[in-house]
Design a protein that fits this description.
The protein is an alpha+beta fold. It has one domain: 2-Layer Sandwich (TolA/TonB C-terminal domain), CATH 3.30.2420. 37% of the residues lie in helices and 23% in strands. Strands 2-1-3 form a three-stranded antiparallel β-sheet, covered by helices on one side. β1 and β2 form a beta hairpin. It is elongated, with a radius of gyration of 16 Å. The termini are far apart.
Length: 109
């Protein structure tokens, strides 16, 4: 079951990246940043629910995180080994106006 859950999570993570889209324009204009944590739970009947586990501190970013994870999860087929099994996983969505530093390009003082 762990391997199937890992496979589902990996596919879901790929979809989240694919469907993340542009930074929410209103959030960008206001300079809003934060990290939202979304819990994805699947019951034994295969019903998916996505809930905000931790707020980014900004409603617009929380709503985007929930929408992206919900849409992404609805587009991932359930692996055969997880049918009839309840499980959950969390996703962190970081919203930052500053791109992360690339490895090997950090400046040293």
């Amino acid at each position: 079951m762990r391997a199937c859950a890992a496979k589902f999570r990996s596919r879901l993570a790929a979809n989240v990246q694919r469907f993340k889209g542009r930074y929410p324009p209103a959030a960008g204009q206001e300079g809003l940043e934060g990290t939202a944590v979304v819990l994805v739970a699947v019951d034994a009947q295969g019903r998916l629910t996505c809930t905000l586990r931790k707020s980014s501190g900004h409603q617009i970013l929380d709503e985007r995180a929930l929408a992206v994870v919900r849409y992404s999860a609805s587009n991932v087929p359930m692996p055969e080994g997880l049918r009839g099994v309840a499980f959950s996983t969390e996703f962190r969505m970081r919203f930052s106006l500053t791109p992360p530093a690339k490895r090997g390009t950090e400046q040293k003082a």
